[in-house]
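User: Fold both of these, please.

Assistant: Here is the first one.
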Amino acid sequence: MITTEYVAGAPAWIDLGTSDEAKAAEFYSGVLGWEYRPLDTPGSGVFTSGGRTVAGHVSSQAGSWTVHFAGGAPAAEVRLTDPHGVEFGLWQGPAGLETVSTPGALTWLELHSPAPNASASFYRSLFSWEIQVIPGAPGQFLQPAGAAPGRMFGAIVADAQAFWLPYFEVPDVDQAAATAPVLLAPHDLDGVGRIAVLVDPFGARFGVMRSVTS
């Protein structure tokens, strides 16, 4: 699971890029119950849930979510692109998401890739991730190097397109899906919970999940 113990290679931050922070704040308030606090830099701010930071916002012409992983960066934030054109970030320092795996917060990640094995090799060479295959489960499951199996934070799955898909924990997946355009209808996954995939007004895809452990 995703935690706030930001060991090397673990998810440490996530931000949304859009061209209209006010519209983004209104949308995610309606879907996830977030509040928004602008920062001094125009177009930048943080989303909060229950007073705790759950995501950031940056100005961007293309709507997208960018995941940042702990360690390896010489500065507070560095953005890179993987071999399939997916942007991701390196995060340095203790500051990061203030809550995860709780309602309204990041709870799971999926890397969609047209070449899952190649993607696994790239990220493993960069972060030394341990990659597991679970019999009967689709995808390759990810955890920080040296971490216990309970620290799996995401998976690489086959897809024609390449992108990181964040999932946010919600109390009611069907209720959340009723407030936004749906790409994948609410359904149950054995041993995981109930999930759906939605899209925001800027074209950024994201998932919602009611975990079996929540």
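And the second sequence with its predicted structure:
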Amino acid sequence: MNTLIIYTHPNHHSLSYAFLQEVIRGSSENRHISAIQVLDLYEEGFDPVLIFNEKKRRRDMHSDPALAKYREQLSWADQIVLVYPIWWGRPPAMLMGYIDQMFASGFAYRDKGGLLPEGLLKGKSVVCVSVMKGPANYPLLWLGNAHKMLMRKALFNFVGIRKVKFFEFGSMESPRGKHSRKLQRIYRYFQTVKA
């Protein structure tokens, strides 16, 4: 199994970065994972801003040469792991900008003229590892599970990815946030996960 880890946080001293390290450590020890690539969107200097004009059209985004490397990574991956904080009830703008550009028509899905498109990323799995300041049940009770609905239904199911797992860790700025136990849980999961 090839694993692509996409990390989205501007600080390498953050708790998100600690979770990234546990994803890498567990994945490196997993006999079912043959190769790992890490894409740090901030360190990469990824430009999340969409630009459409006379020279750059939305319908051509699936073949934009500037995004070829990222398309190759997504095509290569059997498992896509996203590590990010939840800010304002959703992933950071940097990650959403990546999604806007990478999950383009002609690459991630194809319109068939009906209600739903044909997902072109079938067979892949996704794991979302996210942290937030608020309590763990905040997205469910206060926001109607908007984060999971956005990621699972509006994005991944749309492009053909049915296997989506979430780790949403809340109260992460509290000294009682049980950080070490949650980090260990991520390490153990990735140490044993199968395709």
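Residues 16 and 84 are 6 Å apart (CA to CA).
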